[in-house]
Structures are given as structure tokens and as C-alpha cells.
Design a protein that fits this description.
The chain is an alpha/beta fold. Helix content is about 50%, strand content about 10%.
Length: about 450
């Protein structure tokens, strides 16, 4: 286990901090405490050794041959620790300096292994290069042309609006997209200002300029109005509502401090302006507090719930699996259970939108699973009241299907990590790219 000893970090964390190249690390047998210690010790500060961007690929799960070596919650523990030290998810991250401080999940269907890939912060990347004025504050590299970020920046307003309508549907996603566009707009304005002043651009800035990008206030204004419309119409989940209330309260506190200073400085015009702003913020907070949150959902919710309802009766097989008492019929049902899990995961991932963080996505997956559980219990209660009519094996309170036969009309991976019975945890812990929309030709990848 990695730990501190006389100011030095040892174990796997120490190995990572002295690595010069990308490498893979197996986290079989890691507990929650070890997972948190590893992330904090390895990535809490920029890596001092590498002189180029590297990635740290962690094996965190896999198919039935290896799944017993990894706790089902291992990815969640690692991601939680990464988020605590400021890392964010980026499904299009690569071994470039602009991916520092990000992570993504991956499922290798060939080797049937699940990975968490971390792109650490590198100390070398923040150093000025020989006599140049290019520093870490310079605009980052241009995103891959198939990434959501690139498409959001490069498209015209009409296509941008279509993209948002299809792939950036929630309040949280729109806020994350807005934040991204605002930051890039500031970078692009700075480039334009340097050109006007006759100053030389850095290589990164020159790449943005040559790419034909420019600040687009029109798209920003439209997106801000869309976000306001969602709030006015009450289209917020419980988490989104709580985040918005917290943000408003922070703005109120800041405004009150500014108001106190303005009064002390005897600036009546500024006081009047701040008092009006404070009143508006307080009214907005009152309005948001009255919102009745919507239930988080996924695009493929109906199909996913049907599969969950078929899966719930098969959970009891895990106890028999552990006690090695499975019959031949049970083994066929285990295969069916595995297929159902794979199809659920595939549909969940294909429901994932652009600019959607892991916490929001998991909340929606769990809400869909909970809705399916309620329907399953209701069907089970109804079935107990009715006399048995015989027939095939019942899977999901009413649908009859032969043992071991895969549900038709849906494709899925051959294997997927089995979850503990009754855990209520969503299977969508991997961040595998998937999607079918009018933007697939432009490239579909992975949040204000």
C-alpha cells in the first residue's frame, strides 16, 4: 500500500510518480481505503518526472474469469477520489497536455477487461519553454475534430442548436457546455487582441487562429436563454435544483459583501445597483425553491426498464454460484443474466449525452433501475394474487421466455461484470463511446 515515509511516496503511488512512460496497473484486491490513498498520493500534485504527456491505465474489472478479483465499487471509489482532487471526466481525452487532470473509462471487449484511464497533471507542462512567453495559461490544444467540444466550437448556430437539442438535453449538460464555450471564447478574444496589438502568437494560439475559430457570442446568448428557459419551466432534477440554489446563495453572499463595502465607501450609485441585484437574486432563489424536481431519466428508459424487469428474478443465482450448487438449467439462466446485463449497459451508454458528467449519468441510470424495480414488485404482487396457469419460465412478471434464450431486437456485449444481488448499483460504470444520432457522422463522443 502506498503511503508517506519521510516525505517520500512508496508502493504503487511512488512507482506512478516516478514513471516516464505510460503504463498499465492492476488494482485487483484493492479496498476503498487503498483506492483513495493511491489516487491522493499518486495524483494529488503534478507528476515531476515525465517530460511528455502520459496516461496511467488501471485494470478495475472484467468478465467472469477475473471479476472476483475486483470489488464492484472499485471504479466508483477511484472516480470519487479523482473528483476530490479536481479531476474531471473527458471521454475524448488523449495523451496530449490539454488532457491533463482528466480521466475516462473503457471496456476492452477483446480482452474482456474494464479500465479506468487517468491523464495526470504534469509539472513539465507548466514550465515556460525556452524564452517563449507561452505558459500554462495559454489556450490548450485544439480538440479532436470528432469530439463534442470541437463540434460545439466549429458548427454554425443552426447546427449548434440541433446538436444541443439531440445530445445536450439536461440543465447540467447545458451548463457544462456553456462553461466550456465561455472559457474558449475568452481564449479566442485574447488571441484576437494579441493580433491587433501586433504581438506574436504562441504555437498553440497560432493553431487556433489557423483553424478558423473565433469568439461566437451569438451561440452563447442562445444557450444562456435555453438554460434560463429550463429553469423557468422547472425542468430540473433534484441534484440540479440543489446545485442552482447553492450557486444563487453564493452570489447573494458575494453581493452582500460588495454592498457592505460600497456603503462604507459612500458610493450611492453603486449601492443602488447592488441593492437591485440583491433583490433579483433573492427573488430568483425563492422561485427556484418552489420548483418540483423532475425524475432523472435516460433516452432508452423504456427498453432498459424492460430488461431490468427480466433481470431481477435472476439475481438469486449469484448465491447459488458462490456456493457452487448451480444446476445445468441454472447455468443457462446465468448466461441469460449475463446477456441481459450486457444489453442494459449498452443501452445505458447509448443514452449518454454530451457534456454529461459521471455523477449525473449514474443518477439517471439508478433512477431508471429504481423505476423498473417498482414495476417488477407491482407485477410480482399481482402475480401472487392470480392462480398459476403454467407455461414457460416467467422472467419479469408476465413475459414468458425459454431458458438461455437472448431477448431479440437488442444487441449487447458477450460478458459484463456481475453485480452483487440487491445492491441497486447501476451497471453503467464504464464510459464506452456509443450513440446513434444525426451527429454520428461528425463523431460521437463524450457536461455552467
Amino acid at each position: 500500500m502506498a503511503g508517506f515515509d519521510n516525505g517520500e511516496i512508496h508502493g504503487l503511488a511512488g512507482e506512478i510518480r516516478t514513471a516516464l512512460e505510460s503504463d498499465q496497473y492492476d488494482l485487483g484486491g484493492y479496498s476503498e481505503v487503498r483506492a483513495y490513498d493511491l489516487i491522493r498520493n499518486a495524483f494529488g500534485t503534478p507528476l515531476p518526472a515525465p517530460t511528455k504527456m502520459i496516461k496511467c491505465q488501471f485494470v478495475v474489472g472484467g468478465g467472469k474469469l477475473v471479476r472476483s478479483r475486483y470489488d464492484d465499487d472499485l471504479p466508483k471509489w477511484l472516480i470519487g477520489a479523482l473528483r476530490e482532487i479536481g479531476f474531471t471526466e473527458d471521454r475524448s481525452a488523449a495523451e496530449t497536455f490539454d488532457s491533463q487532470g482528466t480521466y475516462k473509462q473503457q471496456h476492452d471487449t477483446g480482452q474482456n477487461l474494464k479500465y479506468l484511464i487517468v491523464y495526470p497533471r504534469i509539472a513539465y507542462a507548466s514550465k515556460p519553454s525556452g524564452g517563449s512567453d507561452a505558459t500554462a495559461s495559454a489556450p490548450s490544444g485544439i480538440p479532436d475534430e470528432h469530439s463534442p467540444e470541437y463540434i460545439a466550437l466549429a458548427t454554425d448556430k443552426s447546427t449548434f442548436q440541433d446538436m444541443v437539442g439531440a445530445k445536450v438535453t439536461s440543465y447540467a449538460q447545458k451548463r457544462k457546455l456553456l462553461k466550456f464555450l465561455q472559457e474558449k471564447n475568452e481564449d479566442l478574444k485574447a488571441i484576437e487582441a494579441k493580433l491587433v496589438a501586433g504581438n506574436m502568437l504562441s504555437p498553440s494560439e497560432q493553431a487556433w487562429y489557423d483553424g478558423g475559430f473565433s469568439a461566437d457570442e451569438e451561440k452563447l446568448t442562445w444557450l444562456q436563454n435555453e438554460i434560463k428557459r429550463m429553469v423557468d419551466e422547472g425542468k430540473l432534477t433534484g441534484r440540479e435544483k440543489a446545485d442552482l440554489v447553492k450557486q444563487i446563495e453564493q452570489n447573494i453572499a458575494t453581493t452582500q459583501e460588495e454592498l457592505t463595502t460600497a456603503r462604507a465607501d459612500n458610493k450611492p450609485k453603486k449601492v443602488e445597483k447592488l441593492e437591485a441585484k440583491l433583490t433579483t437574486l433573492q427573488q430568483r432563489k425563492s422561485t427556484v425553491l418552489t420548483i418540483n424536481p423532475i425524475v432523472p431519466d435516460l433516452a432508452n428508459s423504456t427498453e432498459i426498464q424492460k430488461l431490468h424487469i427480466q433481470w431481477f428474478p435472476l439475481q438469486s443465482l449469484e448465491d447459488k454460484q458462490r456456493s457452487m450448487t448451480l444446476t445445468l438449467a441454472d447455468l443457462k439462466q446465468v448466461q441469460l443474466k449475463t446477456d441481459l446485463e450486457a444489453q442494459i449497459k449498452e443501452l445505458e451508454l447509448s443514452s449518454r449525452g454530451w457534456f454529461q458528467d459521471e455523477e449525473d449519468f449514474q443518477e439517471r441510470c439508478e433512477a431508471v433501475q429504481a423505476a423498473a424495480k417498482a414495476k417488477f414488485k407491482a407485477k410480482s404482487a399481482d402475480a401472487k394474487k392470480k392462480p398459476s396457469t403454467g407455461g414457460g419460465s416467467s422472467l419479469g412478471g408476465g413475459s414468458t421466455q425459454k431458458s438461455g434464450v437472448r431477448p431479440t431486437g437488442l444487441s449487447g456485449w458477450s460478458t459484463v461484470g456481475t453485480k452483487k444481488a440487491g445492491s441497486g448499483v447501476s451497471y453503467a460504470s464504464a464510459a464506452k463511446k456509443s450513440g446513434s444520432s444525426s451527429f454520428s457522422a461528425l463523431g460521437d463522443s463524450d457536461d455552467d
